[in-house]
Amino acid sequence: MFRSCQNCQQSFEIMDEDLKFYKEISPIFNNKKYEIPPPTFCPDCRQQRRLAFRNEYKLYKRKCDATGEEILSVFSPEKPFKVYKNNYWYSDKWNPLDYEQEYDFNKAFFEQFQELMRKVPQLALSTINLQNCDFTNQCGFCKNCYLIFEADGDDSCYYSNYICDSKSSMDITHGLKCELCYQCVDCKQSYNLKYSQNCQTCTDSFFLKNCIGCKNCFGSVNLRNKEYYFFNKKLSKEEYLEKIKSLELHKYSNIQETYQKFLNFAKKFPNKATQGVQNEDSQGDYIFNTQRCHYCFDVHNAQDCKYIFYARNLKKVYDMTVFGAKEGVEFCYENHEIGGGIKNIYFSDQIWGGTYNIFYSKLCMQNSHDLFGCVGLQHKEYCILNKQYTKEEYEKLVPKIIKKMIENREYGEFFPISLSPFAYNETIAQYYFPTTKEEILKKNLQWKDNIDTIPQAEKVIPANLLPDSISEIPRTEEVGQADDILNWAILPVDMPCQGISTNRPFKIIKPELDFYRQMNLPIPHLHPEERHLQRMSLRNPRKFWDRKCDKCGKEIQTTYSPDRKEIIYCEECYLETII
User: Fold this and answer.
1) Are residues 530 and 557 in the same domain?
2) Contact 420, 122 (CB under 8 A)
3) pLDDT over 60 (residue 555)
4) Residue pLDDT, tens place only, 490-534
5) Is residue 131 over pLDDT 60?
6) Domain edge (last residue) among 369, 387, 407
7) Residue 494: what pLDDT?
8) Are 120 and 133 in contact (CB under 8 A)?
9) Which band of pLDDT confidence, cut at 50, 70 and 90, is reported for residue 450?
10) Considering only CA atoms, which of 375, 345, 376, 340 is closest in space to residue 358?
């Protein structure tokens, strides 16, 4: 069946398998199934709606509303609700049931939920089990990290997004089990790898793309298990080392010049239509070990899923944005940021930790179950709008609420963007679905001006006046005294070779300086967020196009649009080119 999206008015298809899924996961109360209706938003608009609830890396200083301490939070000070620092929020020093509301059948559900959400204290940062990782968000089980986001199990990592189980690495976007890696995109199980993309099990290499199992390789593309290759040419060990030495890659100017040369060189080689391995009857990009999964991106270990974005260990899940975790997710629909051994979660935001049977709730966790319209609950059951009920009362009242929501055309969809606690341009919806301030305000949604904070520094240095090599940065000899460079704000200038112009100043921190010295790398000239956006620009959009393989002419689906100039091969033709 086809429908017109009530948000963008574009036609979209709801397949028979989708209808079967909605029916299969529909909840049962008192032996009666309350079927989930088909969506009224198209897949892209559903994703945009969820992303509008995701402030990933905009952090603000504010007061904890419980202790009065100055804290860091994803919620700016003017937000219309209380925010607690994390260790206080997780403690038993407050009771979210104190904010209970009686359900009012004369008012819309979303109106009542918004009222509750604004009363219940919010978690300052979406983090858990961290050590010395104050400046992070969407982060768990990490230590000694700084400005990493959507991260899990990392140690001593900095300025990275979507990084897991990695150590002593910096400026990584989508990395897994990396160590001593720098400026890498979609790389995993690698060591001492720099300025590389789509690489696996590579070591001691610089400027690689689409390589696996390579060691001591430079500026190369589409290699497998090679050593001492320089721009795809085999050299002796002595020739290779002499070439690398002659480039003087400890200098910033030389790195930029060589990187641009490598990007131009890489254009001569074919790209596979989509990235992924060990997939059966699946469609997506960067998907691994999946069966019967469709329209999925950055997904690992999943079966019978659709419209999933960056998640792992899933079974029968539709319309999910982040995260899954090792314990996994089962039988869920239309959620943001859920995971950790959960099942039967519907239309909810930030649900994790062994929870199940939860509807239209936010920030509920730790073995909670059978909740409807709740906020901030842990270890709770049979609650509606944070009010405690018996099992019998709960199962009698919830069907009535669902019936009323159906009448009001509220049931069966994720929260409307108007309920998001963030301004649209604070969220990553603005990255994937860029929108102007005028358009946002026209829709009566939030927009935040002056979103960036400028670091305070008595000294400012333009980036082009920085020493070209880290060895030229003076060391402070006095014990207990910080290196002087740490006191300066660096002001970026035009970067013609990269097409980037920015004036966002930034400072570096001591562990970062130590990393550059250890790796013999120069100090960067761009703000960390600009570096992140630069890496993200190397990834394809979350969208598919029909086009033909540039070698055999076979029809393929790919995330490379037909008007792009890259050489795109189907998987069979691509594998024939690998050396």
Assistant:
1) no
2) no
3) yes
4) 999 755 434 444 578 999 999 999 999 999 999 999 999 999 999
5) yes
6) 407
7) 57
8) no
9) confident
10) 345
CA-nearest of 85, 155, 152, 81 to 118 is 81
- Two tokens, residue 367: 């073995």
CB 232 within 8 A of CB 223: yes
pTM, full prediction: 0.94
State mean pLDDT over 190-207.
Answer: 98
CB 95 within 8 A of CB 388: no
Do 394 and 289 share a structural domain?
A: yes
What tens digit of pLDDT does each residue of 317-353 get?
999 999 998 899 999 999 999 999 999 999 999 999 9
Task: Show the domain range for 289.
Answer: 276-407
The dihedral built from the CA positions of residue 140, 145, 147 and 148, taken in this order, carries a sign that is negative
Helix (H) or strand (E) holding 391: helix 391-407
Instruction: Report the SS3 class of residue 258.
Output: helix
Do 497 and 560 fall within a single domain?
A: no
Q: What is the pLDDT of residue 353?
A: 94
The C-alpha atoms of residue 330 and residue 559 are separated, in whole angstroms, by 28
- 213 has pLDDT over 80: yes
Q: Which residues contact 75 (CB under 8 A, 6 or more apart)?
A: 60, 62, 81, 83, 122, 124, 421, 422
Please state the domain count of the chain: 4
Given a contact cutoff of 8 angstroms between Cβ atoms, the answer to whether 116 and 373 are in contact is yes
Q: How confident is the model at residue 478 (pLDDT cuts 50, 70, 90)?
A: low
Same domain, 337 and 380: yes
Q: How confident is the model at residue 455 (pLDDT cuts 50, 70, 90)?
A: low
Alpha-carbon distance of 420 to 75, in angstroms, equals: 11
CA dist., res. 422 & res. 430, Å (int) = 12
3-state secondary structure 436-454: CHHHHHHCCCCCCCCCCCC
Torsion of CA 117, 119, 121, 126, to 10 degrees: 10
Residue 457: pLDDT above 80?
no
The Cα 340–Cα 333 span in angstroms is 15
Instruction: Indicate if 490 and 550 belong to the same structural domain.
Output: no
* Coil/strand/helix, residue 45: helix
Q: In whole angstroms, how far apart are CA 517 and each of 251, 521, 522?
A: 12, 6, 8
Q: Which two tokens stand for residue 198?
A: 């789509």
Same domain flag for 372 and 398: yes
Question: Which one, of 125, 132, 101, lies nearest residue 115 by Cα?
Answer: 101
Which residues make beta-bridge pairs with 568?
271
Distance of CA 255 to the CA centre of its chain: 28
Type of residue numbered 154: D
Distance, in Å, from the CA atom of 443 to the CA atom of 429, rounded to the nearest integer, reads 15
CA–CA gap between residue 119 and residue 98 (Å, rounded): 10
Q: What type of residue is 306?
A: K
pLDDT confidence of residue 579: 84
Q: Give the strand pairing for 137-140 and 146-152.
A: parallel
pLDDT of residue 171: 98
Whether residues 346 and 398 fall in one domain: yes
The pLDDT of residue 497 is 39
Q: Which two tokens stand for residue 20?
A: 């079967």
